[in-house]
Specification:
This protein has 103 residues and is mainly β. The protein has one domain (11-102). The chain contains 1 helix and 6 strands, in the order αββββββ. A 6-stranded antiparallel beta barrel has the order 1-2-3-6-5-4. Strand 1 (21-26) and strand 2 (29-40) form a beta hairpin.
Length: 103
């Protein structure tokens, strides 16, 4: 298996995937997380690309620990993304929430 390394990514790669499920490799299986938000962050002007945040949700029976995962989708080449858990926003659908911040 080829190791997937983090690479520079753009918000434009993920924005069209909001509402869709992406596969997170948790060998020996993968877990699907739904991309529920892809938003720009405050651009401080000294970054090589505009910063952004991705927010994902999993089912209640699919918990991931914070870390680096290989993520894939039919419209996204496999890529490494570091995620961290989030508190469940009030009034949100049940499940676990995660974020990936690209500075």
């Amino acid at each position: 298996m080829t190791e997937i390394l983090p690479r520079p990514m753009l918000l434009e790669e993920f924005a069209p995937l909001v509402g869709e499920e992406l596969d997170f490799d948790c060998t020996p299986a993968s877990i699907k997380l739904r991309l529920i938000e892809a938003e720009p962050l405050l651009d401080r002007g000294d970054m090589p690309r505009p910063p952004f945040i991705l927010v994902f949700r999993s089912d209640r029976n699919a918990f991931l620990v914070d870390g680096l995962y290989t993520v894939s989708h039919e419209r996204l080449a496999p890529t490494a993304i570091a995620i961290g858990s989030l508190a469940v926003p009030p009034g949100s659908k049940p499940g676990y929430y995660y974020q990936a911040i690209f500075n």
